[in-house]
């Protein structure tokens, strides 16, 4: 069996990647393959195959098995791309035809460069509204009031400028994606954790809905993107409710109901029908027909799509003057587009068993967007709903995307103008109904409440920040917050004192388990998290507190006692000298009178007794409770200078009160970091490091064996 | 022995805190004490003692032992406070006399409310320059040009406004500190890790030096705080070098040299002299004398301190209009002041064996600043150099601070005007020389390079950000960056495959140790860090990669094989049916002819063989290398939904290729989080959890015992 037939759409690069393992199964054929690649193509060819995957899979495309499915799927997707393209263009703040362009060029480019076979690239609500917030804030309608009549806006000039902004933005988005792909830092997307993405898209859906409500109500409100603009827009909208165009509202409500119902039936009977009913296309056609026939625009003042130029526009370089003002948004959009695409691509990859090259995905998206921007496309992403249609209608490969883009091409070239009388309310309905999947994400809240409160917090903060601060600043705040949660989660760890499970070498939290017993004279301390600057001081406090020994007071008492001892010693020495002198004098006078001379010595002894009672004895009676402290560092992933300093201080403080400290469970890297941080010294030797808690306990019980039994006796006495 | 004598300066609250332990040593006296407190004072009194520590320690002040030391120390510190107060006032952008006020009121207040006995509160270079950046940016000199003569600035009006800004800022700083103290969130300071603080102060020292160079050179430059303003100021300064006032420069250079030398000698012979030579005071007096005698201001144009009003000013409410504009800076300054104070206080506390109440420290600083602000003080902090003087000259308690503030009071009331002819260059020299300790921090760079690269990065980023973006934005950027390093450090952990140390139950990284052997058929995987959203996907990739098994390809092959198998089965069934029909026909024709009917079955068998070769056999030969995967989660401190999902996927993928996955070393909290996250299911049961790696290995070797020996035989064959 020839491997090329066995893996019809695996690129040669992929085959080569597989080779080391595959060799065992079928060494002869694969070795031949590899040799062939090496001989004929060399490095250049394999790079070419890596960067242009279509060269790898198209020659081996199994026409007989896949082509029909791809065509059916491509047609279905193309039919969805049309209304979505028109609708999302309005979200992006540009005339509808640019949505069609965006559903053609980038989609075709992705088919050439992409590695996912099932996702459907193209216009996407969340990304479109992000683009829209940039175009609307940089090119606000207010700036285009006609000089003579202030209430009329020069829509043509405004839209022209908006298209310019959108394509410049899209070019930058593409550029960022290519750069990220080339330097292989696709991992930035890991900062966008799932709760964040879901909270973000939920907020985006609210933004989209509010922005579409004006089309459904048939009113005009000026919308500018700034913090709290969503709230202002909503208030403005409510104020304009009395001006509602009833015809628009009716069209909107009816079409939303129809779309929703039919989509529901499509989902329900998806297993029974080969292809979902193209209800969006049907609605579009019917509505356009009615609108044209009943002259809805002229008679009822219903807002319609308006002029859709037929044919292509000549490519144009993006306006570089705009770059500086959109660079931040471009980066955010680039990352968000990638995050959606890669998660969908990986999902399908896992389902159908093929690998996704995440860096190549970035490059594919980048090329789609940056080349697309020359043709005035706005930024594309990947819509989950459309991708599911592509997969479920039998799409096997990127050919389906290519077919769908051809459908759009035909419409651009021939049928665009037919949709000129389409009411905008229909497009709004298409947008709103397509958000159904995102609205469902609100059920995340109770789910996360049960499963993970921190992730719920991330979800909620992302949602609220994005609602209040808009999609750009909201995203930045959300990412910052979700990174901060890592600090929160590690800053106040669970601290536990471990005890031994009877007759085993297992040590567990004494507070959690009943059958666990602490070892006499030994405290075993564990933190649930790694030790670093934000929790190091808390760690030290917790150690001291949980040891049940007021270490600081003990040290204080000891220092005082030492001082007192020194003073007493000095005093005694002085007195001795005095006495000696006196005695010498006495000796001079009387030759022998010893009993009197003993008096001062008794005095000193009494002083020492007072001292013992005051401090040293206190120390002694405490000490018998604790002679060893084991710090289990098995949860430590890294150490910084602050944590090393804190550990040093713990060693110093406990050694001061004659408690020996041991470290256990240090990973190799931790020991290296301890060494680099000058942790080890005369008083902290490497002999205090043990592999496991049990090793340390064994060592301690061996060395303290005798003292221990003695100690516990006195303990019982003093404890009463 | 009476406890009151034993702990002369412990507050009763402290005593009570100690009580539970102390009881054992001297139960009778302490129980009596506690009863006394409870009877007479109740909660109100103990709260009073907590919030006004002086009520606790002053009645028990050991006059005979401590008073002399405290007076000597207080005089020494007061003598230093004078020049520093005058000099740092210039840093804060206000006339020198306000530095004297700031060295009096807040210092006295701290003596009443503070719990540290050895720190010297008062003006501090870093804080003063932070205040200065606010006053200079809100009240720039440019706004005070006289209407007639543009080159002359109305200094009196400007300084008046600056004082207003400084005291409003200081009031807010105090308010923030009190609030932080009352809600007990002093822990915010843990975000200011040591490398950050040191990098920050080093940058602040550069800011201070540049701002003082204009006084030394005797030139005027307008300085406004904004990003990159330090660079502009330096460039402006260089441009003005030709205008240098030679007399000023000479005074500055000579005094810097003298101060530096004498301070060096003071340090060197600190053990031999009871009190350091008050060289700053001497320089001040000598310089003032010379300046007055030689009329330096009038003859050589040397810039002098100017009018110092005698006596106090009436207290004034801070201007609330300014609050909104300084609130961000106030918070930053509040935290920085606290960070310096608490670290010094804890250092002395450890050295002398007493406890610091960090929340009370915040309240003490807050009261000092907020009440001080009514008297036009600017924000105070704690200078390390001065505190060391206070301690080394025999200071035992807050009485030293009180004495030092009285020294300043006398100067304010009587001697202030004597310093009116003091050249500003002298004050600049005092500032610069006092930064010596901070300059030494540059040696951190090589030290950190050796010990911890990440901490070095924090140091450098903090330093550069603070230099370029100034002290306010620089601090925010630095804190954000230092928190990000936690992400960096945990995002790319070390992954290791563990093996067993011969004849022990210890498992160690096979790549690090020679005598460690992997267990046949079992991979034990460990990550050095906790598993969370930013590294979860990398973890999954690393597991798959380090297992030496191309899991994705195996799954792909398996799915293909299954599909093929299904197709073949269908084909076979069809053929069977066909054959059956044929046979039936044949049966109709000829009654018995069985051998011919067997042919198709042989065909199917052959197909299966091809299939086995292609995929299933491949799977089989891989499988014998690996039947179990152990994920050691002992380093996990918490799990989030992303990491639980990733773990689930690992289970699913490996179970797909018949590798059983086990989890070991999960802490109790981790298991709870797994449960909450719906991790366990039919295929992932709690039976797959083990206490330790060894337990899991024991279990696996028991269940796989027989298969294992069989497996390894075939393995040897296929491996060649």
TrEMBL record, chains A, B:
Compartmental location: Membrane
Protein's membrane topology: Multi-pass membrane protein
Chain ranges passing through the membrane: 86-113, 168-192, 246-265, 277-302, 322-341, 457-488
Coiled coil stretches, renumbered: 551-589
Domain (STAS): residue spans on this chain: 512-700
Gene Ontology CC annotation, any one: membrane
UniProt keyword list: Coiled coil, Membrane, Transmembrane, Transmembrane helix
Chief localisation class: membrane
SUPFAM superfamilies, sorted: SpoIIaa-like (SSF52091)
One example GO MF annotation: secondary active sulfate transmembrane transporter activity
InterPro entries per UniProt: S04_transporter_CS, SLC26A/SulP_dom, SLC26A/SulP_fam, STAS_dom, STAS_dom_sf
Pfam family, one: STAS
PANTHER family xref list: SULFATE TRANSPORTER
Protein name as it appears in the record: LOC443591 protein
Underlying gene: LOC443591
